[in-house]
Amino acid sequence: MLKTLFLPSVLILLLAVGCNKATPAEQQGLGDTPAAVVVDSAVGRLRAQVAKPRVGDVYVVQFQPGGAAARRYFFYHVFRATPDSAYLHPAGKDAATAAADLTRPEFQPSANVMVYTLAELLELLQEQPGDVNKARLIQVRQVP
Fold first, then answer.
1. Among 12, 33, 57, 134, which one is least packed by beta carbons within 10 Å?
2. By CB neighbour count within 10 A (0-12 exposed, 13-18 middle, 19+ buried), where does 16 fall?
3. Minimal CA–CA distance to 62: which of 21, 94, 106, 27?
4. How far apart are CA 94 and CA 62, in angstroms?
5. Which tens digit of pLDDT belongs to each residue from 12-53?
6. CA end-to-end span of the chain, whole Å?
7. Across the chain, how many H-helices and E-strands are there?
8. Dihedral sign of CA atoms 37, 39, 44, 49 in order
9. What is the pTM of this model?
10. Which of 118, 128, 124, 117 shows the shortest CA–CA distance to 138?
């Protein structure tokens, strides 16, 4: 129900934008679109990527080790994907940034294998209650 109301609301909002000359933000497709809509579409794109895992995807999981002030990032390399699951090799080490150079040896896939169902992958998009590390999947990258 919420989705059926959301799409018409967004369309009405976009149609209501005046005929003024486009600003640089509008030329990039952001225009007068509220920030919440832009964020929601980014979350939607991430959800769509996770819902259709592909070999070569690298899942970036943000976490905050217990007691630490800084966030850290861990990488999971998809090496096999089926319609209902993904097989992952975790990287050997976590990083201080989500933009870490995946060609470095410490971020290469390890020999460990982790299997996730599609439902489990989608759960990674949100912090789970009771998770002391506050882990969640925040980005899908491709191996360079």
1. 12
2. exposed
3. 94
4. 10
5. 333 333 334 444 444 444 455 555 555 578 889 999 999 999
6. 40
7. 4, 5
8. positive
9. 0.71
10. 124
Amino acid at site 9: S
- If DSSP states are collapsed to H, E and C, what string results for 95-143? ECCCCCCCCCHHHCECCCCEEEEHHHHHHCCCCCCCCCCCCEEEEEEEC
Closest CA to 41 of 25, 29, 59: 29
Q: What are phi and psi of 122, to 5 degrees?
A: -65, -30
Cα separation, 79 vs 86, whole angstroms: 8
As given in the structure block, the two tokens for residue 95 are 């990083």
The amino acid present at 134, given as its one-letter code, is K
